[in-house]
User: Fold this.
Amino acid sequence: MVSGKVQQAGYRDRVVGIGKNLALSGYAENLSDSRVKIVAEGDEEVLEQLTAAINIKNTLINVENLESSDWEATGEFSGFYKLVNEGETDERLDTAADLLKELIGATNNGFSTLNNTMTAGFNKLALGQDKMLEKQDSMLEKQDSMLEKQDSMLEKQDLMLEKQDTSINILEKVHGDTSQIKTTLSRIEVDVKDTRYSLSSNIEEKHQKLENEIAEIKATLVKIQASA
Assistant:
């Protein structure tokens, strides 16, 4: 005997499916007191599996209490089936309609929740995109600043190269002037040496000439003294 939310919720169909999967025989029947009666024949271990499996709790079904008792099997059942009492079909159609309404309501609520969630998600996505665009603009500004600094560095580098070229030209000119000065000094040094040599030669000649003249004078004086 199973009590709880077990009628008009598809519970008997679940029980029949479980009983067939376990190769048991018997039936499931709705009682007037809102309970479900389950009769099953089979091995004791398999019946224990059935007892555990039919203790179902989900959105539509909620088993609150399960009472069981054992007796000798009669073998009177062929297969596992569901007993449907008189007038139960119409009632089940009404129940199905009510369940369909609940399902539609739950679906609408679900879609509404989903829509709200998606809207919130899109808003967060848009906000995140705006932040990304702001960061991108900031990075572009930094990039522009870096390019300006790079241009300034290139201008300074060009100025340094111009100054370097000017310095090289000056050095080349100075080097050329220095070489010319060295050449001129070498020529002057040669001229001085030549002049010194020339002066030395003239002086020696004049000195020798004077010595000769002095010797002649001395000889004349000797002659004069001898004659006197």
